[in-house]
Amino acid sequence: MTIAIAASGSRAGAAVRDAVLGAELLGRGAIGGFAVLALLSGDGQLHHCMTQRGGASCLDMPDAWLAAPTAAAISSGPDRPEPLVQFLPGAAGIGLVTGHRHPSRPGRDGAALNAAVLALLGQGAAPQPAVASVLAANAEADAGLIAIDAQGVLGWGNSERVLRRSDLGQFQRDDGSARVAILHNSIFSCAPLAEQVGALAWAQLTGLAGPIGWVRLAAAVPRRIAHRDRVHIDPSDAITAIDSANPYVPTNLHRATVAYLGSEVWRHGVCVGRVMTELVADVADGMVMPFGDAAHDAFLMRTDHVAS
């Protein structure tokens, strides 16, 4: 497993989903295959959704789950052993345990590492001591773990074995009312991945704009030949038009890069950011057509009001 995320606070479900989607767009590696998302609803009930292929955009996640106060996810490449819930166990009123590498492998006592942490939470242990205890007893286990309890308190860490790896990323933030932790391995990006996807999660948890944000292709929009590349968006960050200085993209049915890396993003005549992940779409009769799923109909924008 290559990425694990847990969050608590307003819209924790949306925060976790956006973090996984962001990792799929920004990163290269074993990502965009299987995914499991779990949450504890406002009344403490446990819910799961999962997929073997397609990543976060293929999760059947009701809109109401986006507002869940406690959520976690795990994702990696496709076609993992069933049942997928083994990779992200949880208990109503108790908590959730996610992880990366092999968090469901048995430890020295024969119990799955993530299940052992969940059992400690059920016995009243706080998340950080629970994670630390299991990892200390299994120093050579190939796993990192993140636990979150029903009160939204986080605990996380990597085993000594995992800490020797050179491909790790991590992110943690806590302001007392919103919390998020991310661990990952074997996902590569031009900039530190954990910080970028952590910023996406934090924006959902706090409602505050961060250094990167989503731009979505919600409907067909015109693609226009212009002197410079620009993406035009409305106040909801939906694309309204795309200008391209590349005259060689056919206007008939053709799949092409329509939002080029580094292009300016404009809203109401003001440049508000630059394209951070490219958007590929079908172009037909001069119109850019959406595919109809979140992962393929969006790109990430680096916002100019935050220093690069």
Helix content: 10-25%
Q: Which percent range describes the beta-strand content?
A: 35-45%
N- and C-termini, Cα separation: 30 Å
Enumerate the strands of the largest sheet in spatial order, edge to edge or round the barrel. 13-22-19-18-15-16-14-21-20-17
The main pleated sheet reads as: 10 strands, mixed
| CATH class bucket of the largest domain | Alpha Beta
Order of helices and strands: EHEEEEEEHHEEHEEEHEEEEEEEEEE
Structural class: alpha+beta
Got a strand count? 22
What number of structural domains do the residues give? 2
Mean pLDDT: 94
What would you give as the CATH superfamily of the largest domain? Aminohydrolase, N-terminal nucleophile (Ntn) domain
What's the gyration radius in Å? Answer: 20 Å
Q: How many helices?
A: 5
Global outline: elongated
Topology, pairings included?
Blueprint: E1 3-8, H1 12-26, E2 28-29, E3 35-40, E4 46-51, E5 70-75, E6 90-91, E7 95-101, H2 113-122, H3 127-137, E8 143-149, E9 154-158, H4 160-163, E10 168-174, E11 179-185, E12 187-188, H5 193-206, E13 212-216, E14 221-225, E15 230-233, E16 239-244, E17 254-259, E18 264-267, E19 270-275, E20 279-284, E21 287-289, E22 298-303
Parallel strand pairs: 14-16, 15-18
Antiparallel strand pairs: 1-5, 1-11, 2-12, 3-4, 3-5, 6-7, 7-8, 8-9, 10-11, 13-22, 14-21, 15-16, 17-20, 18-19, 19-22, 20-21
Helix pairs in contact: 1-5, 2-3
